[in-house]
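<context>
A single protein, sequence plus fold
<sample>
Here is the protein in question:
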Amino acid sequence: MEVKIGKSTLAIVEGDITKEETDAIVNAANSGLRGGGGVDGAIHRAGGPSILEECRKIGHCPTGRAVITTGGNLKAKHVIHTVGPVWSGGGRNEAGLLKSAYLESLKLALKKGLKSVSFPAISTGAYGYPLNEAARIALETAIETLEDHQEIELVRFVLFGKPMYDIFAQELKSLNVK
């Protein structure tokens, strides 16, 4: 499923983010940038040790921020590592931090002159963020950014499994993007 935002495209697909050929893929990282489970572990396994070596040099990434490394053995040339919030019931600025994780990733892509970026559903796995709310924040942030920055030609959400794809599709339809 895809929609046009000005000259840019926002797409949602079901798939494996490690196979993406966009300029960058986004990693749902932990603050220590050490690799881990879920999408983080999959990206590190597929990309090889050069990604972790660069992460070690960077050292740390606060929640809601983003850093960039090589793509290692991935088809994507870069990995943007962002740290989403752990869901604690919604009273600890989780929504603001999740929005910031997406926005800071997109700002970093713009700064590096990247034309295409693939995102996973940040904070929805082990960090426990409610899926519908996470999807809405992700999509709204991408749409707002693309409205102001046509330099990014493609933002793709690569979602693991049909249930997650269906949630993003439902949220995208509810946003009434023309």
